Amino acid sequence: MSDKPKSNKLEISGVPHWLLSGGINSLLLILLGCGAAGALYLFNISASISVPLILAFVIAIIAFPLMKLGDRIHLPRALSAIIVILLVIGVAWASVQITVVGVINQAPAIGAQLLSGLKGLGSWLAHYLQGWGITESDINNSINSFFSSVKTTGATSASSASSTASSIFKATSSNGTLMAKISSALVNGVSSLTGLISSIWSFAFSVFIGAMLLFYLLTDFERIMHWIGDHLGVAPDVGEGLIDDVSGALRDYFKGTTITAVVVALGIGLGLWIMKVPLVIPIMIVTFLTAYIPFKISE
Known about the structure:
Blueprint: H1 17-45, H2 47-72, H3 77-105, H4 107-130, H5 136-175, H6 178-219, H7 221-230, H8 236-274, H9 280-290
């Protein structure tokens, strides 16, 4: 008498197999969701370190050929890493400076362009309304009536606000709460200033941490990548091959994206310069930087 083949399915007496399988799958999905939520929570609370670490890894992979160039000209690894870090910081700082300063310097030209555009829009709208039998005098009368009502309302509101402020001042002066309100305003101002200083300090700390991590990643790049390849759960040579393939693919992606971004930014800049559009350089920089953001145009 031959034995029956054993089944690998989990069975519980009196419980249908489909119900048991569905419960186990649901439990696994819940555990997976809890694990993902926990990972996101840990990433959020450690963003001041995790975000610079990720950026440092990406920059180290991309910039490592510069380290190899330094090795070929017999530069110390530490000096090559410092040069790369200064180069990255300099490029980022120059991009921000050119963009922000360009916008500030071209603010009058931008305002003039906006006024010109609004004037053109007003002329087109007046012409469109005249096609419906509305004359220019009707349009002017409507505009004058609107601004007159706005001025009247504004004067009334200002008078009301003045009387309200006067009554508030008298009330607060009479009951001695004016100093409390001033103190509250001072506390709110100090709190806002403290928040701004804290944000600046957090950003500076993140930049410092990122620079330190990038330094060690650049100086010990081969050793770190070798360690990662040995701990992927596969054979060491296979792991190292995977790491090399991922690093090469990432470098090729950024190389191709950089070439494309340069061509597109130069083409857009040339067209804007021919049309005498302001802020040509900042627009070119923004176009170049946003080329690294992957997006898909829906059909």
